[in-house]
Structure prediction request, 63 residues.
Amino acid sequence: MDIAALSMGIAQTNLLRDVGTAVLAQSLDQATSMGDTMTQLLDSAAMERSVYPDLGGNIDISV
Prediction:
């Protein structure tokens, strides 16, 4: 068995694992950021409804 080839294979496997973990961490950070932004948007929409509670309650349609 070739020790050098085995060592290279283990190093590549470790590198791929580390890269996958880093990409997953970035995806998690982005999802958390998007969730925080969505929460802020929903909170601002709730504030808008509390100021104008009848806004959007009726739709006038004429044909």
